[in-house]
Amino acid sequence: MSHLTLYTNPQSRGMIAHWMLAELGQPFELVNLDYGTTMKAPDYLAINPMGKVPALVHRLSGREVVVTEAAAICAYLAEAFADAGLLPDMTGRAAYFRWMFFCAGPMEAAIMDRHMKVEVSDEQKVMVGYGRYDEAVAALAGAMPTGDEWISGSQFTAADVYVGATVSWGLQFGTLPEQPEFRAYFERLKKRPAYLKVFSEMPAS
């Protein structure tokens, strides 16, 4: 029997992993840590030396594995609990990995630079990994599913959890522009029972 523990904070990317766990339908233990105190305590630093959340501890068959980084946790859980149906078949696997890690890499970097008012010059554009914010936004908008489709095809997967969190927070906090592609996707995501359960419990900032 496996046991899952998620170390998180409700004002963090840990909410992505929390949503993923809710989609799985597996029992798990939730441990909320505070910034600067319990997140930097020796017992937690032994789990994640970065002193950041989220971190997932999976105890299985007498051994314990630790996974950090929200995208990695989503990908790991989709494979570890494949019966939940959150891992696409090989037909959808390319889009699944492509857009999950696009959001975890170039898109997040572009969003954070924009949020911190970092302007990328033409000379720096080739070095930052995402080009420019507007280019990253256009690429993500082009990946938005239409109709009944999801990121990797007809099946809702872990990629929709991670990409969906990027779009959800982007629209709510203004880090993504209000565009029809993003809005239509978000409107579908927020009707999912797991999304409603997790984010309705999120305290106001």
Summed up, what is this model?
The protein is built from 8 helices and 4 strands, in the order βαβαββαααααα. By secondary structure, the protein is of the alpha+beta class.
Q: How would you portray this structure in words?
A:
This protein is α+β, with helices and mostly antiparallel strands and about 200 residues long. It has two domains: about 5-85, Glutaredoxin (3-Layer(aba) Sandwich), CATH 3.40.30; about 90-190, Glutathione S-transferase Yfyf (Class Pi), Chain A, domain 2. The protein is about 45% helix and about 10% strand. It is built from eight helices and four strands; from the N terminus they run βαβαββαααααα. It has helices spanning about 15-25, 40-45, 70-80, 90-115, 135-145, 160-175, 180-190, 195-200, and strands at about 5-10, 30, 55-60, 65-70. Strands 2-1-3-4 form a four-stranded mixed beta sheet. Helix 4 packs parallel to helix 6. The longest helix is centred in the middle third of the chain and has 26 residues, at about 90-115. The radius of gyration is 17 Å and the shape is globular. The model has no long low-confidence stretch (mean pLDDT about 95). Pfam families: GST_C, GST_N.
